[in-house]
Design goal:
Blueprint (H helix, E strand, L loop, with lengths): L10 H22 L3 H5 L2 E5 L8 H24 L1 H19 L10 H6 L1 E5 L4
Antiparallel strand pairs: 1-2
Helix pairs in contact: 1-3, 3-4
Length: 125
């Protein structure tokens, strides 16, 4: 029988993950206005002002808003103690708050609102 030891991610691993997700989202939305998952479900990110493609600045803002919640969440764990728990809780709530608005009438998360974008269905092809 093979025994594997599972370890929790280190502080460096968490930062690498946050940076990787930020870069991935900023680059692919900036270049193609969609992530690979959005391509599969046939949606794309457009500007609220009517432009069909998201700008690079909007892509970076979108990715930054999402990354901010992850930084607070993991930053709290790194600090530890009551202050760290408080910061981590704020990060977790913020992480949820980014996406909860997508269930509203406009279906725009905080990252969409901050960047002036909207996610649209692709036209039928």
């Amino acid at each position: 029988m093979l025994l594997q030891v599972v370890t929790l991610p280190t502080r460096r691993d968490r930062w690498v993950g946050i940076v990787a997700v930020f870069v991935y989202n900023a680059v692919v939305i900036g270049a193609w206005s969609r992530t690979l998952g959005q391509r599969v479900v046939r949606v794309h990110v457009a500007m609220l002002d009517g432009a069909e493609r998201a700008t690079v600045v909007a892509a970076v803002v979108r990715a930054g808003v999402v990354a901010a919640g992850a930084i607070a969440l993991f930053g709290g764990r790194a600090i530890g103690g009551p202050v760290g728990v408080t910061i981590g809780t704020i990060g977790a709530v913020f992480g949820l708050a980014v996406y909860i608005p997508i269930f509203g009438e406009e279906r725009r998360g905080l990252h969409d609102r901050a960047s002036g974008t909207v996610v649209l269905l692709d036209p039928a092809s």
